[in-house]
Write a structure and sequence with these properties.
heterodimer, A: alpha/beta, six-stranded mixed sheet, 22 helices, B: alpha/beta, Rossmann fold, eight-stranded mixed sheet, three-stranded antiparallel sheet, 12 strands, 27% helix, binds iron/sulfur cluster
């Protein structure tokens, strides 16, 4: 049989099944294979908050979407080209996202009475013509898997569990993925249970051979490797990159790292990862609660370590008081918030950007805290190092705002050259810094913990164990310079302002913003922050392809804003701010620069869709510049939102 | 075990074995800061401060290696008055903050100063978990059975029925017994002492500092403004013989005028007070704080009045050895480094480079 090979520039595949079907693993393996092949890629895992939601039901569906291409891509994609559905619920839950013509590969094994009912199907959709618009491929994946692994003597249940590897093998064949990485992975993962190991490898190979030898699938696809900048790459998730960034921050500053934390979705992987890096001098402390986690971290900072705490939105709420203590005592402290859907417990496994204002203002009193946000999974590394630089240099808590999409999503990462890490100088105080003249004219050298550096306004960091610098700090208002308790009105007013001024000073250390305005003629600016970078970039590309002009700026620093932001937002006729919240950056930008920013807001627990955003962007461009509307054809418009 | 820097205190102070000592003779004055002490006249806190200031030189430690951490409340102002490193933190969180300090720095002697509201109410969770983990620190819990700083509300150790500003017709809260709580929370060192008994206080402080792990010292402290006389029974010369049950290691537990009363095992499994006679003298309980099983210590702690105080055991209830959290955490780091000292900056960068590369890279040329 000859199989036709078609060239494609990009493909979006979604693997969907029951939570127990191993879809995350399947997607992850397909991703690793694609990374090894050299495609650019972006992934979107999506799973329920329950560990094992009732089997076969809609809430129990778990999926993993991977977008891979022969060119540089920015998002996991809006609508899949291929859906692999392992049971009726997976089909039902994911069908609304499919466009006509999508290839759907269904495991028909569970399309029976009770399972159909559980998924809410009255009729078997594989037997009526409700799926006529799609390119449907029905295979009893479970059945063929059980048959393929017979020789290993596993129970029917165990044997059927290898069906995800069968599906992976089939898809790997279809898209010409290399198989060695997955075989190697399975050998390692199940090294201790040879029967399971062999069954999985056999199922994987059987899936490949199924494509090769049966005539069920007539077409294979080829997606050439993407041209990427020279260098060494690996695939990485945001949480892993962030954890590496924390280790790097410790190395760059020469400080031992102390992570005080409490398990919370979707941040726990940062704890898991950092607990493996003790040889770097990283101590991880799983505290009794969120408050103790940050408390111990602040204590560690007082003792001369790099104190770090990691959490999600509900945890930040609990840590607020201690962040305030960090502001008052002016100690370095890294607070990692992997944002998830809120309020309250909200959507633990879904993404959102709704903690920006909590990070900015969620404390009593005037308690300014710098905010840094990564824009892609790999960028979590650089953002973490930058947050450590600010925390240590300016002696302040810093909020690092990641989110659920960045945390679990992955992309190829240009592995950084460690030599290019910034030097972070803790500059511990070692000597007295002040002379007190007594009533008798006698001079005594002493240490003033709140005498500030003229350039950064940072106070000295004198670590216990340093002779002659014994001092007391705390949450009560400090007297300027000497740092003793001080209640007088003028001093408080001054200290409130100087703490704010110190945070504002950080802007002096920031590079100018990069304005992406290829034609230089754009009248509309899209301003974003955090994980919306991908969808915004992809939307801009669509709009530009249609011949419209649009400029893009993405913020790494949310507090303080870079010096040139004001000038930039005022330069454009319109500013569009897409966010996965109801307009939090918009609020800050409008208040700060008196600019009539337009929001584009969704809080669906999912990344923004590039096509929809592109449509909104094109609307705004054509409203702002009617001449642009004239050049736009119907086809252009369709292309933008396709 | 981690190595001990030269000059460290030898036994009998294993609790301080990592802390550098000094040959310079320090005095209480060296530990007195230039800040004016601002407790109310007659407050029990003064006596404890004086006792601590004059006791600290006895440890022979370098002053800069001592850290006091406190929470919020009258007693939590303590660190400001001591010429050591200190942090006056936020309400209830001192044990958590001290945990970070102690874990990262074996060379520091870490002290927590807290009160009944701070430690047992808002900070109850941190207190029990610090004791459970056995982090090397000494916790001084000033128990005045009232909220002083917020001007006189009942506390989690106030007696039932207490009339205060927030309980005008009497409190309906049942109080904690801090010693029982500590024993239940797996504390390895638990003691109780009294602000006005300088000698006993100093002795308990010495034993607490010597202990490696979390030492919980409850200090009965009089608040003359909002709860005056709460401990009169154990302070007044007329009643104290009958009110204080002194716990002395290796000694039969006797109290009362001329030791007329004593403790024996009760039929119900606890301990009870009896009039000592020739018949039962041999049955008297001999105090042993080093018993691994905390049941006897717990039974003794239950002889403390939950209501108005007429009777309370005073002394060291429990003093057992158990591996500390911080020692073990440091040991794991040392093991991960293969017993080598901290790597040089260059070595760290090389190791970091290997880490970020991982095993699955590809190269684009
Ligand atoms: S209120 Fe009571 S505890 Fe507080 S300082 Fe005054 S006397 Fe001491």
């Amino acid at each position: 049989m000859t199989t036709e090979v078609k060239q494609l520039d990009r493909v979006i595949i979604r693997f969907a099944g029951d939570s127990g079907d191993g879809m995350q693993l399947t997607g992850d393996r397909f991703t690793q294979e694609s990374a090894a092949f050299g495609n650019d890629l972006s992934t979107l895992p999506n799973f329920p908050a329950e560990i094992r939601a009732p089997q076969g039901t809609l809430p129990g569906v778990s999926s993993f979407q991977v977008h891979f291409a022969d060119h540089d891509i920015l998002t996991p994609g809006d609508r899949p080209d291929v859906l692999v559905a392992m049971n009726p619920a997976a089909l039902k839950a994911n069908l609304p996202d499919m466009k006509p013509g999508t290839t759907i590969i269904v495991d028909s094994h569970d399309f029976t009475g009770r399972n159909l009912t559980k998924a809410g199907y009255a009729e078997n959709p594989l037997e009526d013509d409700s799926l006529a618009d799609y390119s449907l491929n029905v295979v009893d994946l479970t059945g063929v898997t059980i048959e393929a692994v017979k020789e290993f003597g596993l129970s029917r249940k165990d044997a059927s569990r290898a069906k995800n590897m069968f599906a992976l093998g089939l898809l790997s064949w279809m898209y010409g993925r290399p198989t060695e990485t997955t075989v190697g992975f399975l050998e390692k993962r199940f090294a201790k249970v040879p029967a399971i190991r062999d069954a999985n490898i056999t199922a994987f190979r059987a899936g490949w051979n199924y494509g090769e030898t049966t005539e069920a699938f007539a077409v294979r696809y080829e997606i050439k490797p993407a041209a990427m900048a020279p260098g060494t790459y690996r695939n990485i998730t945001g949480n892993l990159a962030l954890a590496y960034g924390v280790v790097a921050g410790g190395v760059a500053s020469g400080l031992p790292v102390f992570l005080g934390t409490y398990p919370i979705t979707p941040a726990s992987d940062i704890l898991h990862e950092l607990s493996k890096h003790k040889r770097f001098g990283v101590t991880t402390f799983q505290a009794e609660d969120e408050i103790a986690g940050i408390g111990a971290a602040l204590g560690a900072s007082f003792a001369g370590s790099l104190g770090v705490t990691s959490t999600s939105g509900p945890g930040v709420a609990l840590k607020s008081e201690t962040i305030g203590l960090g502001v008052m005592t002016e100690l370095p402290l890294l607070v990692i918030d992997v944002q998830r859907g809120g309020p309250s417990t909200g959507l633990p496994t879904k993404t959102e950007q709704a903690d920006l204002l909590q990070a900015m203002f969620g404390r009593n009193g005037e308690a300014p805290v710098p905010i840094v946000a990564p824009q892609s999974p790999g960028d979590c590394f650089d953002a973490a190092v930058e947050a450590v630089r600010i925390a240590v240099t300016y002696r302040t808590p810093v909020m690092l705002l990641s989110d659920g999409y960045l945390a679990n999503g992955s992309e190829p990462w240009h592995v950084p050259d460690v030599a290019s890490l910034p030097e972070i100088e803790p500059g511990f105080a070692t000597e007295t810094n002040h002379v007190t003249v007594g009533k008798d004219g006698q001079e005594t050298a002493d240490f003033w913990p709140y005498l500030r550096d003229e350039e950064t306004l940072a106070r000295p960091w004198a670590v216990p164990g340093t002779p002659g610098l014994e001092h007391r700090i705390g949450g009560l208002e400090k007297g300027d310079g000497h740092g003793n308790i001080a209640y007088d009105p003028g001093n408080h007013d001054y200290m409130v302002r100087i703490r704010q001024a110190k945070i504002d000073r950080i802007a002096d250390s920031l590079p100018p913003l990069e304005v992406d305005d290829p034609s230089g003629r754009a009248k509309v600016l899209v301003l974003g922050w955090g994980s919306t970078y991908g969808p915004i970039g992809a939307a801009c590309r669509r709009v530009r392809r249609a011949g419209l002009d649009v400029a893009q700026v993405h913020l790494r620093h949310l507090n303080p804003f870079p010096h040139d932001l004001g000038e930039i937002v005022q330069r454009y006729d319109k500013v569009l701010i897409p966010e996965m919240n109801l307009g939090q950056l918009s609020l800050l930008v409008r208040a700060r620069y008196l600019v009539d920013a337009v929001g584009y807001n969704q809080v669906r627990g999912l990344p923004l869709k590039a096509a929809e955003l592109a449509g909104a962007l094109a609307d705004l461009v054509t409203q702002t510049d009617p001449e642009a509307a004239d050049v736009l054809t119907e086809t252009d418009l369709e292309d933008i939102v396709r | 075990m981690t190595t001990t820097p030269t000059g460290a205190t030898d036994l009998p102070f294993p609790g301080l074995s990592g802390v550098p000592t000094t040959d310079t003779k320090l005095t209480g004055k060296d530990f007195t800061s230039d800040q004016e002490v601002r407790w109310c006249p007659g407050c029990g806190d003064y006596a404890v401060l004086k006792a601590v200031q004059s006791f600290l030189p006895d440890l022979g430690l370098r002053r800069e290696n001592i850290v006091f951490v406190s929470g919020i409340g009258c007693s939590s102002r303590f660190p400001y008055y001591l010429e050591t490193y200190g942090m006056h933190s936020i309400h209830g969180r001192a044990p958590a903050i001290a945990t970070g300090i102690a874990t990262q720095r074996e060379d520091l002697s870490v002290w927590v100063v807290t009160g009944d509201g701070d430690a047992l109410s808002i900070g109850g969770n941190h207190l029990i978990h610090a004791m459970r983990r056995n982090v090397n620190m000494t916790i001084l819990l000033f128990n005045n059975r009232i909220y002083g700083l917020t001007k006189g509300q009942y506390s989690p150790t106030s007696e039932p029925g207490k009339v205060t500003k927030s309980t005008p017709v009497g409190s309906v809260d049942h109080p904690f017994n801090p010693v029982s709580l500590a024993l239940g929370a797996e504390a390895s060192f638990v003691a109780r002492t009294v602000d006005s008994d300088r000698k006993h206080l100093t002795g308990v402080l010495a034993a607490a500092a010597a202990h490696r792990g979390t030492s919980l010292v409850e200090i009965y402290q009089n608040c003359p403004i909002f709860n005056d006389g709460a401990f009169d029974a154990i302070k007044s010369p007329d009643t104290k013989a009958d009110a204080i049950i002194p716990l002395v290691q290796g000694q039969p537990i006797r109290f009362g005028v001329e030791g007329s009363k004593g403790l024996v095992r009760s039929a119900a499994g606890g301990v009870e007070v009896v009039e000592v006679s020739g018949d039962n003298e041999g049955d008297l309980l001999v105090h042993d704080a080093t018993l691994d099983d905390p049941t006897q210590a717990f039974a003794i702690s239950r002889l403390t009045d939950a209501g108005v105080l007429h009777q309370a055991p005073i002394g060291i209830f429990r003093q057992v050895e158990r591996a500390t959290y911080d020692d073990q955490a440091r040991e794991q780091l040392a093991t991960a480094r293969g017993g080598e000292a901290a790597p040089s900056a260059e070595q760290s960068r090389a190791a970091l480079s290997a880490l970020v590369h991982g095993n699955d890279t590809w190269t684009v040329v």
